[in-house]
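REVIEWER CHECKLIST
Item 1: Sequence provided? yes
Item 2: Single chain? yes
Item 3: Sequence as submitted:
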Amino acid sequence: MALGPRLDLRQSQSLVMTPQLQQAIKLLALSNLEIEAFISEEMDRNPLLEAEREDRPEDSADAIGDDYERDAEDFSEDLPTTDQLVRTDAGPDAEGPLDADYAQDTFHHDSAADGGPGLDGALGLNGGPSGSFDDDSPDFDSFAMADISLQDHLLAQARSALSGADQVIAAHIIGHIDEAGYLTATLPDIADQLGADPADVANALRVIQSFDPTGVGARSLAECIALQAREADRYDPAMARLIDNLDLLALGRLPQLKRMCGVDDEDMADMIRELRSYDPKPGLRFGGEPTQSVTPDIFVVERAQGWAVEINSASLPRLLLNRSYYAELSSNGRGDKKAKAWLNECLTSANWLIKTLDQRQRTILKVATELVRQQDAFFRHGVAHLKPLTLRHIADVIGMHESTVSRVTSNKYLSCARGMFELKYFFTSGIASADGGDAISAEAVKNAIRALILAEEPKAILSDDTLVDLLKDQGFDLARRTVAKYREAMGIGSSVQRRRQKAIGG
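Item 4: Structure as written out by the authors:
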């Protein structure tokens, strides 16, 4: 057998996730606020990136090169407007492919929502601030006033009411009070930790329980309510028995409670009204984590020609490539190969980031536009007209992969005349219609169930079987267990629980 060289050709396929593609996928799933933080980090890392300034002169050397601007203008000429996409049933062939061609060196640096009046009210033409102030402008002095925490509020009172060792014990007890105002540690444990007399710890707790807000330092709900009843001078023997049996009150066992407390119907109703006026979580009036407002990513308003959909560009700085700085660094480091390689890497990274951000905006806009077109009845008439919709349906219409649509709709919010909605809200399962017509959205069914329960009379509580019959009259063909599932998902109790609640509420 002879040995000799041989040449074989083999063909294979593999899917490789380039760093640029990974970056594009990552940015697509981020919200505008997360994108803003990401851009800030990239600008700190890459000296060639900068945010556009409103006062930047038109002929500034910091602008993007003429070749990039020409490519961007040529690209934007063939791009249909948002209104055109909404008014016409634009399919996947209505415009060029959405996926970016990363093999090209061109990019479009303008926002997809540029041009036309802003849809965000106080924002300017291009999503920036309007620059005007009125009577409703924010009070800047209020930003400097930080809310005092519950612990700080209690410590300030302890310093004026106690001294010496008692103040130390009180400070330790306050450290074990949670944000709702309840003591989370036992007195024997606190005494062991401090090596103090349990009687001194108990005395310090009694002093703390006299502080504002009333009910703070309680070890249970009953004790919290009792402290507030004593403060209101309503802690009589009948009220004490009622507070000790809050579990029976929650179950609606009013006849048993009346016998235990020795009161009639009028007195029991008065005592229940008194209990409802007390705060079960007094500590929540102070401090705590501030409420995080949701910033919409998309604005939808009705125009004469149809629905206008716009990206909220107010929270996104417009990135530019500082070519003059690049030219300066290139001329200064011609002999340094390492510096030149680093500079080229920064240039490539900046180009990729700008192209990826622009493609992200266009992808979001295309998905949102089709979403608005599909849910036109919802935007015009409300949640009762919400259509069943799936990610796959949107993906098939616009010619994208289902995973791309899923990333676009994650952590994104839409603002319209009916309120603020997460994009995922518009994707719901379908339920068969009772008359054999089109399927009905599950969200519309929930809304119908909620409306029926809110309208029920205290003496005519609707059971799940009754709800099934009423919903069938409205065109919803549901099983009893389905109604129960939707009712529980909305946090609405059963007919027995609602009857007890209405009986307690008088």
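Item 5: Key structural point noted by reviewer: The chain has a mean pLDDT of 77.
Item 6: Recommendation: ____
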